[in-house]
């Protein structure tokens, strides 16, 4: 409440009010009323003040030290700042919430309001009255609400972390599924699906920027004979050996892929027919020079085709496949265009 000592023409009359009469009125009020005569140091506290804190009536010293001693140590500095600002006229009113120690040692939240009703000629406080009001239930409710909010926030945070973990796991699964969908199960190079997808993209890119693009079709010579004589286990080992050799001959931008069975293709972006034929010959020689596996000598037949302007991916694949058949017809283990 505001300091009324300076703007109330009856201020002196109020300060001179018979203390016994004023205190008699205070005895009837249930709230904790206090009356501080700063000039004498005497502090009157009504029965409601004592009952609020669990003390017998008028059982404590009637001075400001009693007030200071019941304030919670953690709250004391802040209360004093607010109190000093008010009595020194740096703040328009005095109101503070803090904890007071009860007789049983526990602490009670109270709201303390007060105002100066008289000042001395030098401006210092002459007399000040105020009220302590029990706000413990309200504070307790607020604390419980804050704890519930914190618990809810913690729960939300945990659920958010859990959802993030689930999303990461789902993303990893999606990535893995995407890889599996575009990867040959045995050789782990690109499968037919990815080959068609990449070839289509490269055809569009070659058309857009007028770049050369070459496709190499490859087939393991006499692979059926290898399976028939040595079994599918050796056949699988042969496929893996060929893929290992293919990977060793590929550039970073090239894509080797298993077309199906013992047939492979390689997409060579930015590569002319002559350069692709050289690359295909290098692949043929590299495979032919691999150490024998179970007395099996492995060779490749290769067909090379460079994309024509406006040619579709399917048409390019047909021409590369036709070139491969020409290599087979010419005696195998060779490159044809």
From TrEMBL:
<dbReference type="InterPro" id="IPR000014">
    <property type="entry name" value="PAS"/>
</dbReference>
<dbReference type="InterPro" id="IPR029787">
    <property type="entry name" value="Nucleotide_cyclase"/>
</dbReference>
<dbReference type="InterPro" id="IPR013655">
    <property type="entry name" value="PAS_fold_3"/>
</dbReference>
<dbReference type="Pfam" id="PF08447">
    <property type="entry name" value="PAS_3"/>
</dbReference>
<dbReference type="InterPro" id="IPR000160">
    <property type="entry name" value="GGDEF_dom"/>
</dbReference>
<feature type="domain" description="GGDEF">
    <location>
        <begin position="211"/>
        <end position="337"/>
    </location>
</feature>
<dbReference type="InterPro" id="IPR001610">
    <property type="entry name" value="PAC"/>
</dbReference>
<protein>
    <recommendedName>
        <fullName>diguanylate cyclase</fullName>
        <ecNumber>2.7.7.65</ecNumber>
    </recommendedName>
</protein>
<dbReference type="GO" id="GO:1902201">
    <property type="term" value="P:negative regulation of bacterial-type flagellum-dependent cell motility"/>
</dbReference>
<keyword id="KW-0175">Coiled coil</keyword>
<dbReference type="GO" id="GO:0043709">
    <property type="term" value="P:cell adhesion involved in single-species biofilm formation"/>
</dbReference>
<dbReference type="GO" id="GO:0005886">
    <property type="term" value="C:plasma membrane"/>
</dbReference>
<feature type="domain" description="PAS">
    <location>
        <begin position="18"/>
        <end position="90"/>
    </location>
</feature>
<dbReference type="InterPro" id="IPR035965">
    <property type="entry name" value="PAS-like_dom_sf"/>
</dbReference>
<dbReference type="InterPro" id="IPR000700">
    <property type="entry name" value="PAS-assoc_C"/>
</dbReference>
<dbReference type="GO" id="GO:0052621">
    <property type="term" value="F:diguanylate cyclase activity"/>
</dbReference>
<feature type="coiled-coil region">
    <location>
        <begin position="142"/>
        <end position="169"/>
    </location>
</feature>
<dbReference type="Pfam" id="PF00990">
    <property type="entry name" value="GGDEF"/>
</dbReference>
<feature type="domain" description="PAC">
    <location>
        <begin position="94"/>
        <end position="147"/>
    </location>
</feature>
<dbReference type="InterPro" id="IPR050469">
    <property type="entry name" value="Diguanylate_Cyclase"/>
</dbReference>
<dbReference type="InterPro" id="IPR043128">
    <property type="entry name" value="Rev_trsase/Diguanyl_cyclase"/>
</dbReference>
């Amino acid at each position: 409440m505001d300091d009324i000592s300076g703007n109330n023409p009856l201020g002196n009359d109020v300060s001179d009010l018979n203390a016994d009469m004023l205190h008699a009125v205070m005895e009837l009020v249930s709230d904790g009323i206090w009356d501080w005569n700063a000039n004498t140091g005497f502090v009157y506290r009504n029965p409601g003040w004592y009952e609020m804190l669990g003390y017998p009536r008028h059982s404590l010293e009637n001075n400001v030290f009693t007030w200071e001693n019941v304030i919670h140590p953690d709250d004391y500095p802040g209360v004093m700042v607010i109190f000093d600002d008010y009595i020194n006229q740096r703040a328009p009113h005095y109101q503070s919430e803090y904890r007071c120690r009860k007789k049983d040692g526990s602490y009670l939240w109270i709201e303390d309001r007060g105002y100066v009703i008289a000042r001395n000629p030098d401006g210092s406080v002459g007399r000040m009255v105020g009220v302590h009001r029990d706000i413990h239930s309200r504070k307790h409710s607020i604390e419980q609400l804050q704890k519930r909010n914190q618990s809810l926030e913690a729960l939300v945070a945990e659920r958010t972390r859990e959802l993030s973990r689930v999303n990461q796991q789902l993303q990893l699964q999606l990535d893995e599924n995407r890889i599996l969908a575009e990867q040959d199960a045995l050789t782990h190079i690109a499968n037919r699906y990815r080959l068609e997808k990449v070839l289509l993209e490269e055809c569009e890119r070659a058309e857009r920027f007028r770049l050369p693009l070459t496709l190499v079709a490859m087939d393991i010579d006499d692979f059926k004979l290898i399976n028939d004589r040595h079994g599918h286990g050796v056949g699988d080992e042969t496929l893996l050996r060929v893929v290992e050799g293919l990977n060793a001959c590929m550039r970073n931008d090239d894509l080797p892929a298993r077309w199906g069975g013992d047939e492979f293709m390689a997409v060579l972006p930015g590569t002319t027919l002559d350069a692709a034929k050289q690359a295909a010959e290098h692949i043929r020689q590299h495979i032919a020079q691999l150490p024998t596996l179970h007395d099996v000598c492995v060779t490749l037949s290769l067909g090379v085709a460079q994309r024509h302007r406006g040619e579709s991916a399917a048409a390019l694949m047909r021409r590369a496949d036709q070139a491969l058949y020409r290599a087979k017809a010419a005696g195998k283990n060779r490159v044809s265009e």
